[in-house]
């Protein structure tokens, strides 16, 4: 294929990954009609259909799947190399894209970047809050953040946070009307503020551990959130018990605005790690961000 047709391949790969001409056009900054014509021209030159188009979605044909899986990763390698070359200068520069959960973004990334960014004005950091286990290669992120136990084995992992603990908390007004739970199983009789995460697809069970014994409790309650702030605020208003990262409620516990229960069942577990694919030539900007986020405790 002629060199000037590489843009056609980029267009096809983007549409195939997005499964939508509309989303792909936005990502590439072109009109939907122009993108459709580009992909159609590629199919005509190859003499084979690459995409199946319906009113609801766009999906690769078997030939399209083969092209996507063979050409896609090579374009990612080229993109990474060009990015590294463009940043080979005295002052590191560029945009680093990171996907992370809400708590990791608030408790770990934000404090580190507060110190890092003022001294590195040419480095931009884009953080996307996402509760799912995002495929950072397919979604073109430079790195992602997960708890240490969730990092894929084929990724490089860098510890960026201390060990964590969870806390079960409720307001004084809640406990004036309800008894304190003495063991995790007692939570089934309480109005618990539930958590729904895309990672699991259903209600997140509350996890406990004591003396090596692990226990998951499927709680019930009137409220379901995927937001830290909303769970904390609902607990403060006396609407139920919340299962929260300890650091997000410590001050409220000290101020007697929230009461902590089952503390002896909430043991520490591995904290957050930044993970990223192996790169032979990491950009200077990415290397600086890694060092800024590295846990030094």
UniProtKB/TrEMBL annotation:
The keyword ATP-binding does not apply. SUPFAM superfamilies: Periplasmic binding protein-like II (SSF53850), Winged helix' DNA-binding domain (SSF46785). It holds the Pfam family LysR_substrate. CDD domains: PBP2_CrgA_like_5 (cd08474). It comes from the Bacteria. Keywords: DNA-binding, Transcription, Transcription regulation. GO terms for biological process: DNA-templated transcription. Residues 4-61 form the HTH lysR-type domain. Belongs to the LysR transcriptional regulatory family. Transcriptional regulator of the ttuABCDE tartrate utilization operon. This is HTH-type transcriptional regulator TtuA. It comes from Pararhizobium polonicum.
């Amino acid at each position: 294929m002629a060199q000037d047709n590489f843009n056609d391949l980029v267009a096809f790969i983007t549409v195939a990954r997005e499964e939508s001409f509309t989303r792909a056009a936005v990502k590439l900054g072109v009109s939907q009609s122009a993108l459709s014509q580009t992909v159609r021209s590629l199919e005509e030159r190859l003499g084979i259909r690459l995409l199946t188009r319906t009113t609801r979605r766009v999906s690769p044909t078997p030939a399209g799947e083969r092209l996507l899986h063979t050409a896609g990763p090579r374009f990612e390698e080229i993109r990474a190399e060009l990015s590294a070359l463009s940043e080979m200068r005295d002052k590191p520069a560029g945009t680093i894209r990171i996907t992370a959960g809400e708590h990791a973004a608030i408790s770990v990334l934000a404090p580190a970047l507060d110190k890092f960014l003022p001294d590195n004005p040419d480095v931009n950091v884009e953080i996307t809050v996402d509760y799912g286990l995002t495929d950072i290669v397919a979604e073109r992120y430079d790195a992602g953040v997960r708890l240490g136990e969730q990092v894929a084995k084929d990724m490089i992992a860098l510890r960026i946070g201390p060990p964590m603990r969870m806390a079960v908390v409720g307001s004084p007004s809640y406990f004036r009307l309800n008894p304190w739970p003495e063991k995790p199983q007692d939570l089934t009789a309480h109005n618990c503020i539930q958590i729904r995460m895309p990672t699991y697809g259903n209600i997140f069970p509350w996890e406990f551990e004591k003396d090596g014994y692990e226990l998951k409790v499927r709680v019930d309650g009137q409220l379901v959130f995927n937001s830290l702030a909303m769970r904390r605020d609902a607990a403060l208003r006396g609407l139920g018990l919340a299962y929260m990262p300890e650091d997000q409620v410590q001050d409220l516990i000290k101020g007697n605005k929230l009461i902590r229960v089952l503390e002896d069942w909430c043991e520490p577990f591995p904290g957050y790690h930044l993970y990223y694919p192996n790169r032979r030539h990491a950009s200077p900007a990415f290397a600086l961000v890694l060092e800024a986020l590295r846990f030094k405790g």
